[in-house]
Amino acid sequence: MKIFKQQINIPNSLTTCVLLIISISILSAFNHRKATRTPFILTYDTLRFSKPAIPDDNILTVEGVALGRLLFYDTTLSGDFSQSCGSCHKQEYSFSDGGKQYSVGIKGKEGNRNTMTLVNLAWQTDFFWDGRVKSLEELIYFPVTDSLEMNSDTTIIVTRLNKHKFYPKLFKAAFPGEAISFHTVSKAISQFLRTINIKSYSKRFLEIEKELKHNETIEKLQENSFVGLYYRTTNTCGRCHPGEGVGNTKFANNLSVPNAIYNTSDSGQMILKKFKVPTLINIKYSAPYMHDGSYKDLDEVINHYEKHIKEIYTKNPEMFIHLDSSLITLTEYDRKNLSAFFELFTDTSILTDKKYSNPFQSTNFKWDDFPYLK
Fold it and tell me: What does each C-alpha distance from 208 to 213, 233, 276 come to in angstroms?
């Protein structure tokens, strides 16, 4: 007993110091455990798609993606609480605006560009129709503050989120050690958007690919109407819609609006105006088409290219390198089958996957039940 008493007979000041160190260590360990984020595993076809372009300073986490989904659908980000990002990018239309030529902002004014689909953004490095923005994180600022869109102020948004009953804890889980800012808002939304990607093309497209691999001659392949069309479109449409995303990597002039064909350079020279070539993934769900939404269906698009493809070939020679000029005229066969062919690039799971849906519209949604508030 005497030994025991001697061991605990420590001066009060030292006791306080020891207890303080122990408390800090426990609190630090607890905070470290709470601050640990869970990596989000992005699933995609690794044989068809390259490594996604995800910035090192905004890696995907379960907490960040979940927060981004809430913010994407939250009207708190608009000036008058009437709209969210999801108001103009509707899931059932492959995150386009459901048949509208131009989206309508909170003041009831139309924009001046057709709403682009939000599929496979993780593989893109140029954004907007003119490619003026080079990252998703930078892009988020523009629709939120544009007077024709959400017409909000980033300072006001941050104030609202800081005063919110639940968001501060969600931001702490997603971005530990960082204060709520519009930078973390854009990072979270960007994380969510990068998860929206195609899992597989339609069954018929996969069958065609199989036929391409197992048949010996082009002549044999062309006995199949869709496989023959595949060869022709590879040398025409495929020049602007190439590769893993069937678009989204090139810029071209589509000649759809005569008075928007040219820009004037600083020297006064007239130069060809080009727009981003959109993806063909889920193209049947994202009408109307072109940067200005001027064509209501795919038949009008096909007729346009059939009429202007020679002119486009002349004005965009870099898009048709080594192209035999005899292949740039669409036949009646091509026109009849192209719409059906484009539908092969379809993944309807994007339109229905609950991971991409509006959480606030769920009958079961409760802030208190959100996973990262517990």
Answer: 9, 14, 28
276 in helix, strand or coil? strand
Determine if the pTM surpasses 0.70: yes
Q: How far is CA 104 from CA 232, 288, 296, in A?
A: 38, 15, 18
Residue numbers of the chain with a pLDDT score lower than 70: 1-35, 212, 214-228, 230-235, 256-272, 309-310, 312-330, 374
Instruction: Tell me the per-residue pLDDT of 19-62, one tens digit each, with 9 for 90 and over.
Output: 455 555 544 444 444 458 899 999 988 878 889 999 999 999 99
What single-letter amino acid sits at 15?
Answer: T
Sign of CA dihedral 97, 100, 102, 103: negative
Residues 6 or more apart whose CB falls under 8 angstroms from that of 49 comprise 123, 244, 245
Contact indicator for 78, 148 with CB cutoff of 8 Å: no
Q: Is residue 368 packed enough to be buried (19+ CB in 10 Å), middle (13-18) or exposed (0-12)? A: exposed
- Minimal CA–CA distance to 307: which of 256, 239, 341? 256
pLDDT of residue 157: 98
Q: How far apart are alpha carbons 127 and 116 in whole angstroms?
A: 10
CA 235 to chain centre: 28
Closest CA to 191 of 254, 109, 273, 136: 136
Tokens of 88: 């103009």
Q: How far is CA 143 from CA 13, 75, 102, 176, 256, in A?
A: 58, 13, 13, 27, 25
